[in-house]
Design brief:
The chain has 615 residues and is an alpha/beta fold. The protein has 21 helices and 15 strands. A hairpin with a 2-residue loop joins strand 7 and strand 8.
């Protein structure tokens, strides 16, 4: 492969447009009235001038993101007077470009590039940066900041009659205490009331409690008002209509609910409606009671088939007869053993929001949910791949920055995606970040002997390590320091090298593994120092050696630092290692059962700090 081809392949194609400058030569008869910038299907900037002139400039703070394969268009609206007639004629000059055009621009200084677009006597200069800046500090900005700026909370309308299980569902999906949600619903002034809870402020709920959705003007007015709001953060992103699975020959819908579903397109537009059939466990219990009354115990496949048929008859068929097959629906239970149904509901909702509303709202929904470790993991990977995990081998995003600052924005993106209840901000504290940096540097944290036993998954290894740590009847002693920086490399400038690349990859994989272990350890409560220290110690025993060894072995070969053929090998390695050190959703219940009572980890003891021993 020639050097020119290699250079073309590895250049980043994701930028932030920071300004547009339009200039007409003095010899042109035209004047500039205004300029539009379109990115993909979005019109993101319109600049008008009170008096047409030969030039126009517009700066964008902090910058307009342009992602891979998004076509861009600058439309320059001009006017001029026709000679001899005096009539003003208007023309539009469209100049198209793509992120790759910016990437190939030869004008690059400190991550900033300019692209010149020319049409006759018209010249447009597009300035772009490979990194987003905070204008007030000049620092790198986490990608999660741009997501949360557009959509700081997932806005969900929950509808259904009292007693159908809304409070329990919210408690399971978002870890908002069901009693608090129920009490807030009782006090709410109406459907307009925004229900935001301290333990999880990434979701804002509206409760359609006992309102008649087909006829009540409050519901229709609320939906019409919200959906006409210009800002994404103010619009309703999804609607859950909760219906109890009927017993015997009870009807699934009352007349008002039927009317609402029939009118859903007019009322909701593109906002996804998900029908939630609740209390699946009662139907399962009924089926098991009837089936186990026979002489022989039924086979599992028979029970599953029986359940599908009953759901089809009682719920799915009536829904399809009423509204067709295009309304997503999920049968759920909040009881233990039905965790996969809540995960399915959350996944269906996020998928529909991503498709019909906005990607930012879908990411916010996955940040807000606290029921599925698999969805947390996939969302964290997705956010990382959109910006800061990509092109690490190129160094372009981070060149000129201190490595610690680069890792700080990566850290914030990952922690934001997991959205733990962390009122003391332990997970973004200097002590925790120091622990992570020292962990990356210390690849020999635990010198464990090779085992002849059959290889087990990461989740089982972590649980075994936790049991061993807690079963020793000694205090948990961190294998690394929390208040002393043991390495100086974090204050070096980011550079294009295998060593720096290895450190970045290890930091991402290590932090993601710690997030998963914390998800395992904190099923109900908020984040505490004991839980963090136990997670770090368990990971140092269960997974870190294998991860660091593979990264080190790979990048000891200088050839592996290069990205060839358009593939981002560093990104591929990050995703592969994360997936290999992942805890599966289906494991959580059994792993937590093995760990026993985790209540003590939910309490912060003022006697112990980061460098104190825990019992």
């Amino acid at each position: 492969m020639s050097p020119s081809i290699l250079t073309t392949d590895i250049r980043p194609t994701q930028f932030f447009i920071t300004s547009i400058n339009v200039n007409l030569l003095e010899s042109s008869r035209r004047q500039v009235e205004y300029v539009e910038l379109r990115v993909g299907s979005r019109t993101l900037a319109v600049r008008h001038v009170s008096i047409p002139s030969k030039s126009l400039s517009e700066a964008f703070t902090p910058g307009i993101e342009v992602s891979d394969y998004e076509q861009c268009l600058v439309s320059v609206h001009c006017c001029h007077r026709v000679i001899g007639i005096g009539i003003q004629k208007k023309t539009v000059v469209d100049l198209a470009f793509a992120p790759q055009d910016i990437a190939l621009s030869p004008n690059a200084v400190n991550g900033k590039r300019t692209l010149r677009l020319v049409d006759g006597k018209l010249q447009v200069v597009v300035s772009a940066s490979e990194t987003l800046y905070r204008p007030e500090t000049g620092k790198l900005v986490p990608f999660s900041d741009s997501i949360l700026h557009a959509c700081p909370r997932f806005r969900l309308l929950v509808m259904g009659k009292d007693g159908v299980g809304k409070s329990s569902l919210i408690a399971r999906a978002f870890k908002i205490r069901s009693l608090r949600f129920y009490e807030a619903c009782q006090r709410q002034a109406g459907i307009d009331t925004e229900l935001i809870f301290q333990e999880n402020d990434k979701v804002v709920l509206h409760n359609g409690r006992n309102l008649v959705p087909g006829t009540d003007s409050d519901v229709e007015d609320f939906l019409a008002r919200r959906q006409s709001m210009p800002e994404l953060k103010d619009r309703v992103h999804a609607v859950w209509l909760c219906l109890g699975i009927p017993s015997a020959n009870e009807p699934l819908f009352d007349e008002d609910t039927k009317r609402f579903i029939e009118r859903r397109r007019r009322l909701l537009g593109d906002t996804p409606l998900v029908i939630v059939f609740t209390k699946l466990d009662l139907l399962v219990g009924k089926i098991e009671y009837e089936s186990f009354g026979d002489e022989d115990d039924p086979e599992p496949w028979y029970l599953e088939e029986y359940l599908r048929n009953e759901l089809e008859k009682a719920c799915i068929r009536p829904l399809q007869e009423l509204a067709g097959a295009d309304i997503p629906n999920v049968a759920i239970s909040v009881q233990e053993g039905y965790e996969s149904t809540i995960e399915q509901l959350l996944e269906v909702t996020a998928t529909k929001v991503d498709r019909y509303v906005a990607n930012e709202a879908a990411v916010a929904a996955l940040m807000a949910q606290r029921a599925s470790i698999s969805l947390k993991l996939s969302n964290s990977i997705s956010v990382g791949k959109k910006r800061h995990w990509r092109g690490l081998a190129f160094g372009s995003k981070f060149l000129g920055y201190v490595l610690k600052d680069c890792l700080d924005v990566i850290h914030m993106d990952i922690v934001s995606c997991w959205n733990f209840e962390d009122p003391n901000r332990y997970l973004i504290s200097d002590q925790f970040k120091t622990l992570m940096l020292n962990m990356v540097a210390n690849t020999d944290t635990r010198d464990l002997p090779d085992s002849d036993e059959e290889e087990v998954g990461f989740g089982v290894s972590v649980a075994s390590a936790i049991i061993g740590i807690r079963g020793t009847a000694v205090r948990v002693v961190l294998p690394i320091a929390a208040n002393i920086m043991l390495v100086g490399w974090a204050y070096d400038l980011y550079q294009y090298s295998g060593t720096v690349l290895s450190q970045c990859i290890a930091y991402i994989v290590d932090l993601t593994a710690i997030m998963q272990i914390l998800f395992l350890l904190t099923p109900h409560g908020h984040m505490t120092i004991p839980a963090i220290k136990l997670a770090i110690t368990a990971y140092s025993m269960a997974g870190i050696n294998e991860v660091h060894s593979r990264i080190k072995d790979h990048y000891e070969n200088p050839h592996n630092v290069l990205t060839l053929g358009g593939r981002d090998q560093a990104l591929d390695m990050i995703v592969r290692l994360i997936k290999e050190t992942s805890i599966k959703s289906e494991e959580l219940v059994s792993l937590r059962a093995r760990l026993g009572d985790l209540g003590k980890l939910q309490r912060d003891d003022p006697k112990y700090g980061w460098d104190d021993d825990d019992e």
